[in-house]
Write a structure and sequence with these properties.
The structure holds two protein chains of two kinds. By secondary structure, chain A is an all-beta fold. In chain A, 0% of the residues lie in helices and 58% in strands. Chain B is built from no helices and eleven strands. Chain B has strands at residues 5-7, 10-13, 19-24, 31-38, 42-50, 53-57, 64-68, 74-78, 87-94, 105-106, 110-114. In chain B, strands 2, 4, 5, 6, 9, 10 and 11 form a seven-stranded mixed beta sheet that branches. In chain B, strands 1-3-8-7 form a four-stranded antiparallel beta sheet, with no helix packed on it. In chain B, a hairpin with a 2-residue loop joins strand 5 (42-50) and strand 6 (53-57). The chains are: A mainly beta, B mainly beta.
């Protein structure tokens, strides 16, 4: 069975304090690793898709990377508005289903 | 382009009742997926439809059902509601054929509370 595990469950940072979120996956025949941001009471907002090991993508203060077993979301000099839950998902398996991790709740204090 | 829309945004029902939720995908998107999100279980996949056919199904009881119309709009139905069905129900759409790797875009969700 496909599995996606995110760590830590919660992370509290000071504004400007860079860090990384981890997403470990066991998804057979991975056909895309997705990162989303979710604010309370809202639907997930798409951030990145990564398709192959070694791939990197950047958007403002965020950079996502992919290896054969993990993906990292690096947050450089975060601001309070980066506070949200970050979700990771892998698409694969025989039916190309998208499997989500439980997310990392990021809080950035001013 | 307008995003994925879901109606209603909030619902309160009592145990034993049934409920129907609606989702309109992004224009041109032919695939619609439904998810249940709870604090304990996170996002769990319910089902995916493409061209009015269910392509994938998650591990939920038969009380959860769905359908897709010719204009790609989708509905999901939950019968005989239980307290544990209280959750945020999310709809997501994507462009292409089932099995492709294109990105899913989510709607704002319907918050269902079962009393």
């Amino acid at each position: 069975e496909d599995q996606v595990t995110q760590s830590p469950e919660a992370l509290r940072l000071q504004e400007g304090e860079s860090s990384s979120l981890n997403c470990s996956y066991t998804v057979s025949g991975l056909r895309g690793l997705f990162w989303y941001r979710q604010d309370p009471g809202k639907g997930p907002e798409f951030l990145f898709t990564l398709y192959s090991a070694g791939e990197e993508k950047e958007k403002e203060r965020l950079k996502a990377t992919l290896t054969k077993k993990e993906s990292f979301l690096h947050i450089t000099a975060p601001k309070p508005e980066d506070s949200a839950t970050y979700l990771c998902a892998g698409r694969g398996g025989s039916n190309y289903k998208l499997t989500f991790g439980k997310g990392t709740l990021l809080t950035v204090n001013p | 382009k307008a995003g994925v829309t879901q109606t209603p945004r909030y619902l309160i029902k009592t145990r034993g009742q049934q409920v129907t939720l609606s989702c309109s995908p992004i224009s041109g998107h032919r695939s619609v997926s439904w998810y249940q999100q709870t604090p304990g279980q996170g996002l769990q996949f319910l089902f995916e439809y493409f061209s009015e056919t269910q392509r994938n199904k998650g591990n939920f009881p038969g009380r959860f059902s769905g359908r897709q119309f010719s204009n790609s709009r989708s509905e999901m139905n939950v019968s005989t509601l239980e307290l544990g069905d209280s959750a945020l129900y999310l709809c997501a759409s994507r462009e292409g054929l089932a099995g492709s790797t294109d990105t899913q875009y989510f709607g704002p969700g319907t918050r269902l509370t079962v009393l």
